[in-house]
Design a protein that fits this description.
This protein has 9 helices and 10 strands. Strands 1, 2, 3, 4, 5, 6, 7, 8, 9 and 10 form a 10-stranded mixed beta sheet that branches. Helix 8 runs antiparallel to helix 9.
Length: 250
């Protein structure tokens, strides 16, 4: 019996990019998947574009939110419909290389990992200029992940046979909160050292986004993980150093 992969994709104002995300899934060498795209009440043509794909490929499924609820709730809507043993995450402006699912599933079966992640490259907004390879550590425990930025959402796969069903917390970094929760429960995240995803860097205020991200990471320590100020400070300093090394050059 083959293992179905449920791909979780929240989409908001994604009309310019969602085509490439969907076609990258359709081009996978591993064919046993369903892609559940939840449109979070986009004001553009995101819903219409996904609908066209869903009409041509029954593996692509659309959930249309009547109100905008944010990415965590959009992911939860997809998770509630997911039928697969494996849950893979792909944001609507990113895309995968064609062997991503096949190679990562083989690696997970071999290592027994409940959570895995891969290397990737950033690309510019137009998806043309690629940055350097972003390398990742072999494994991550809860304590190490608290001070690390290694797991890019669109590289992550979770084995629900091990973890059971889960939902995303309604917090800014719902993905980071999920990885922490799984590792806090005793699972170990393991890397596949292959370049299998492209992360699109959208235009915006870099300084403002970095400051905002830092504040949200701190909130995750204090409000989600319940860490003391002292412990939060230690992990935050490590997180900041790792982020600086990761994003120092494109």
């Amino acid at each position: 019996m083959v293992d179905l992969v449920s791909i979780i994709t929240p989409a908001y104002r994604a009309a310019k990019y969602v085509d490439r995300a969907i076609t990258s899934v359709q081009q996978q060498t591993y064919p046993h998947w369903e892609m559940i795209v939840t449109d979070d009440c986009s004001p553009d043509e995101t819903r219409e574009i996904v609908t066209r794909y869903a009409e041509q490929d029954r593996r692509v499924k659309l959930i249309a939110q009547s109100t905008n609820q944010g990415p965590a709730m959009a992911r939860n809507a997809s998770l509630q419909r997911a039928q697969g043993r494996f849950i893979a995450f792909l944001d609507s402006d990113d895309w995968w290389l064609s062997t991503k699912l096949e190679r990562q599933l083989d690696s997970m079966r071999c290592s027994g990992a409940a959570l895995s992640y891969t290397q990737f490259r950033r690309v510019d907004q137009d998806g043309e200029n690629e940055g350097r390879l972003i390398k990742v550590p072999d494994r991550l425990t809860y304590r190490v992940l608290l001070g690390n930025t290694a797991i890019a959402t669109s590289t992550a796969i979770v084995d629900r046979k091990q973890t059971g069903d889960f939902q995303m917390a309604k917090t800014y970094y719902d993905d980071f909160a999920l990885w922490l929760r799984l590792l806090r429960e005793g699972y170990v995240a393991r890397a596949l050292h292959e370049d299998l995803m492209r992360y699109r860097v959208l235009q915006g205020s870099v300084s403002r986004s970095k400051v905002n991200s830092a504040m949200k990471v701190w909130s995750t320590y204090r409000e989600v993980e319940g860490l003391s100020v002292a412990r939060s400070s230690i992990h935050f300093s490590r997180y900041a150093c790792n982020a600086l090394l990761k994003y120092a050059r494109f």
